[in-house]
């Protein structure tokens, strides 16, 4: 049937058909937009989860490595300050590690800090002056758990292992 003939029979039919067709197309367009946004959201979430599973373990591993290196560095410098103290005091090591941060008569410190540093877990480093048969003092940290022994973050770090002494 010809459009002009359809309009002459029912002049409102083509107008209502084109209006409903426009509404239907508009709805379809919005449905596809919403489906696309939903798909984008799902893909984004999956990508973030995959990224997190790859990145987070590496970040944690790097953090543990950094913490261990900080403990080793602190102990290395405290041990060096103890050696300097002994060299200036006839081979005698101090009874307390606090002596390293206490200014001497000239205002100098053996360890350049106002106080002895704490390990990354907030505990004081343990100092054991040399005993009978022990030629050198030991500076150590018991690790994250604060107890002797352990593995990983809980492992002990001491000046003997850093120096490679038995």
Question: Main β-sheet: number of strands, strand sense, barrel status?
Answer: 3 strands, antiparallel
- How much of the residues is beta strand, in percent? 5-15%
- Determine the number of helices (DSSP H or I, runs of at least 4 residues): 3
Classify the secondary structure makeup into a structural class: mainly alpha
Low-pLDDT stretches: none
Q: Helix fraction?
A: 40-55%
* Overall form: rod-shaped
**Element string (H = helix, E = strand):** HHEEEH
Oligomer: single chain
Radius of gyration: 37 Å
Beta strand count: 3
Please describe the structure with a list of short key phrases separated by commas or semicolons.
166 residues; mainly alpha; three-stranded antiparallel β-sheet; 3 helices; 3 strands
3D architecture notes:
Strands 1-2-3 form a three-stranded antiparallel β-sheet. The chain has three helices and three strands; from the N terminus they run H-H-E-E-E-H. It is mainly α and 166 residues long. The longest helix is centred in the N-terminal third of the chain and has 78 residues, at 11-88. Helix content is 54%, strand content 5%. The protein is rod-shaped, with a radius of gyration of 37 Å. The protein has helices spanning 3-9, 11-88, 159-163; strands at residues 126-128, 138-141, 157-158.
Indicate the topology.
Blueprint: H1 3-9, H2 11-88, E1 126-128, E2 138-141, E3 157-158, H3 159-163
Helix pairs in contact: 1-2
């Amino acid at each position: 049937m010809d459009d002009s003939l359809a309009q002459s029979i029912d002049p409102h039919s083509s107008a209502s058909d084109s209006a409903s067709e426009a509404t239907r197309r508009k709805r379809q367009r919005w449905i596809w937009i919403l489906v696309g946004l939903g798909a984008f959201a799902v893909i984004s979430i999956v990508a973030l989860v995959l990224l997190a599973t790859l990145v987070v373990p590496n970040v944690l591993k790097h953090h543990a490595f950094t913490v261990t290196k900080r403990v080793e560095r602190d102990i290395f410098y405290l041990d060096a300050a103890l050696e300097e103290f002994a060299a200036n005091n006839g081979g005698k090591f101090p009874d307390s590690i606090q002596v390293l941060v206490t200014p001497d008569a000239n205002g100098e410190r053996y360890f350049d800090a106002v106080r002895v540093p704490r390990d990354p877990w907030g505990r004081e480093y343990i100092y054991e002056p040399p005993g009978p048969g022990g030629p050198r003092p030991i500076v150590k940290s018991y690790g994250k758990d604060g107890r002797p022994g352990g593995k990983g973050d809980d492992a002990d770090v001491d000046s003997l292992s850093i120096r490679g002494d038995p």
